[in-house]
Amino acid sequence: IVAARNRAQADYRRDDPEAVRRHLEAETELSGGLARLFAVAEAYPELRSADTIVTAQQTLNEVEGHIAAARRFYNSSVTGLNNAAEIWPSS
C-alpha cells in the first residue's frame, strides 16, 4: 500500500499519456489495497475501533466524495465543450 501511495503521489507529466497511465494504475492499486486493508480491519473488532483506522476510513470517504464531485464537474465540462463544438459557430 505504501509503495502504491508513493507512486500515486509522485509528480508526473500530464501531457505524457504513458505517465498518466502509470499514475492511474498506481491510484487503482492504492484504492484496491486500501479496500483490502479495511476488509481485514473489519474482521478484528479491536482493530476496527482503533482511532487510526476510524480516521483513515473517514478520510478515505471524504476523498472519494471529492473525487466523485471532480469527476461530475469534469464530465459536465467535457459535455459542454462537445456541445459547443457541435453547434459552432454559435453566433
Structure description:
- This protein is mostly helical.
- The relative contact order is 0.07.
- It has helices at 2-9, 17-42, 45-48, 51-86.
- Helix content is 81%, strand content 0%.
Based on the model shown, name its key terms.
elongated
Describe how the helices and strands are arranged.
Layout: H1 2-9, H2 17-42, H3 45-48, H4 51-86
Helix pairs in contact: 1-2
- Structural class call reads mainly alpha
Number of DSSP-assigned strands: 0
Largest sheet: none
What general form does the structure show? Answer: elongated
Low-confidence stretches: none
Q: Rg, please?
A: 19 Å
Summarize the structure.
The protein has 91 residues and is mainly α. 81% of the residues lie in helices and 0% in strands.
